[in-house]
Specification:
Its EC number is 1.2.1.27. This is methylmalonate-semialdehyde dehydrogenase (CoA acylating). GO terms for molecular function: methylmalonate-semialdehyde dehydrogenase (acylating, NAD) activity. Belongs to the aldehyde dehydrogenase family. It is a single chain. It contains 17 helices and 22 strands. It has a seven-stranded mixed β-sheet, with helices on both faces. Strands 9-8-7-10-11-21 form a six-stranded mixed β-sheet, with helices on both faces. It has a three-stranded antiparallel β-sheet with strand order 5-6-22. It is α/β, with parallel strands linked by helices and 512 residues long. It has two domains: 287 residues, Aldehyde Dehydrogenase, Chain A, domain 1; 181 residues, Aldehyde Dehydrogenase, Chain A, domain 2 (3-Layer(aba) Sandwich).
Length: 512
């Protein structure tokens, strides 16, 4: 029998503690810290729980526990690690709707959006189940006379993950399943704004039968992040978040001689060619610009209307104006609130500045109201036309349900505009022309490209491949690149002698 959202809320609400515990050395412990951060429902401002800022001793204990665990976990056979991951992904699927409910409560996402967040994370856990084949090395026999050479893929040690508020299930699951399946141990520091979902992911991880200390979960803010970035026993860091924090994480981690993959900001464009199907374009923009209230690094915040497509501006605006914000318990809501009052203030300030800069505001969502939820962090769908690249609303990552319409004479102008932008996370083109699509995908300097697909997030057997100012590092998240990030390669050159065979005195069994 189907369970209503309200019934799910009642089931989950009773499990929420007054303070979020930490997972250290295999046990859930209450922090001794006197500093905590309230976790609020973005639709009501009601306090759900409190996030502690871990003490120095707690951070040290987490690292030491992870380091000890690595010494035995790295030697667990790869197929055995894969079997544990199979059980974990099965548990995630079993608890899918429970996780989505918890996630919706603390982020404000609609229930459908929350389910998508959880499912995209599960897909990465599924991919981690293939770790046996992903960690296969290479072998060449007889690289020289009677000499063989092979490469081994081996884990490195303790990794840390620092994750943002906007995808509290998906992004942690980008990181620790792959790192741990590779044979490393992991310390997760989730966003202090929505820690309940990551904690539940960790509970299910222990239930799957993993050793109690291969995953640690600590909570806090900048001080705790900086501890992880400086600690000598942490060999690498995975990060997703804003540009300034991403740059700080990358610089600090690499200054401390750690590996680092830091996913940062975005300004994603969707090119609309005049031969595209107009209704398909409008439908794509409604979800891509306003889904998750625009709080995702792959949101489309700029539509580049090429040639005659510029005449579609009013129709695009009229359709986006019909979108309805609301709480996640409202099944008719198209998107939820922003994460915090501060986020709302920032987005509305950008909107007001755009008006002053001369952009034409076709739809203004700053005054939207939601019945029975006067305290929510609401911003309605907002559409600007006649936007130019010089305007702040174009240059900034807005992280709200705001769409900028810019115009281009032809495809060449559209490509040049996108390539001048400092970010290179995602882009798409809507067209009926195979030639235009192929030309676009070859010349565009962006990591993830969609053709008649507005948000081209790749499935986990590929990798999430932001470019330029959207990513700092060398190897990207999930896919084969994640395995390379979380492992090191060892080459073994071997020769076995027959009985009585003389050894080259100079050992110059050179590869001749």
């Amino acid at each position: 029998m189907a369970i209503s959202i309200q019934e799910r809320v009642s089931q989950v609400a009773g499990l929420i503690p007054t303070q979020v515990p930490q997972l250290i050395n295999g046990s859930w412990v209450k922090s001794a810290s006197l500093v905590s951060i309230p976790v609020t429902n973005p639709a009501t401002q009601a306090v759900l729980t409190n996030t502690p800022c871990a003490t120095q001793d707690e951070m040290v204990a987490a690292v030491e526990s992870a380091q000890r665990a690595f010494e035995s976990w790295k030697d667990v056979p790869v197929p055995q690690r894969a079997r544990m991951m199979l059980k974990y992904q099965a548990l995630l699927k079993e608890h899918h709707d429970e996780l989505a409910t918890l996630l919706a409560m603390e982020t404000g996402k609609t229930f459908e959006d929350a389910k998508g967040d959880v499912w995209r994370g599960i897909e990465v856990a599924e991919h981690a189940c293939n770790i046996s084949s992903l960690m296969m090395g290479e072998t060449v026999g007889n690289v020289a006379r009677n000499i063989d050479c092979s490469s081994w893929i081996q884990p490195m040690g303790v990794f840390a993950g620092i994750t943002p508020f906007n995808f509290p299930a998906m992004i942690p699951l980008w990181m620790f399943p792959m790192a741990i399946a590779c044979g490393n141990t992991f310390i997760l520091k989730p966003s202090e704004q929505d820690p309940l979902t990551p904690n539940r992911l960790a509970e299910l991880f222990l239930e799957a039968g993993f050793p109690k200390d291969v995953l640690q979960v600590v909570h806090g803010a900048k001080e705790q992040v900086d501890f992880l970035l400086h600690h000598p026993d942490i060999v690498g860091v995975s990060f997703v978040g804003s540009v300034p924090v991403g740059q700080h994480v990358y610089r600090t981690a690499t200054d401390n001689l750690k590996r680092c993959q830091a996913f940062a900001g975005a300004k994603n464009h969707m090119v609309v060619m005049p031969d595209a199907d107009k209704q398909q374009v409008i439908n794509a923009l409604k979800g891509a610009a306003c889904g998750a209230a625009g709080q995702r690094c792959m949101a489309i915040s700029v539509a580049v209307l090429v040639g005659e497509a510029a005449n579609w501006a009013d129709e695009i605006a009229a359709e986006l104006a019909t979108l309805k914000p609301g709480p996640f318990t409202d099944e008719e809501a198209d998107f939820g609130p922003l994460i915090s009052p501060q986020a709302r203030e920032r987005v509305t300030a950008i909107i007001e500045q755009a008006k002053e800069d001369g952009a034409s505001c076709l739809v203004d969502g700053t005054q939207v109201e939601v019945t029975d939820y006067p305290n929510g962090n609401w911003v309605g769908a907002t559409v600007f036309a006649k936007v130019t690249p010089e305007m702040g609303v174009y240059q900034q990552e807005i992280f709200g349900p705001v769409l900028c319409l810019v115009e281009a004479n032809d495809l060449n102008d559209a490509i040049a505009m996108i390539n001048r932008n400092p970010f290179g996370n995602g882009t798409s083109i809507f067209t009926g022309s195979g030639f235009a699509a192929r030309d676009f995908q070859h010349r565009i300097k962006v990591g993830q490209v969609g053709v008649n697909v507005p948000i081209p997030v790749p499935l986990p057997f590929f990798s999430f491949t932001g470019w330029r100012g959207s990513f700092y590092g060398d190897q990207h998240a999930y896919g084969k690149q994640a395995v390379r990030f979380y492992t090191e390669t060892k080459t073994v050159t071997s020769r076995w002698f027959e009985a009585g065979e003389n050894v080259d005195a100079n050992m110059t069994i050179a590869l001749k």
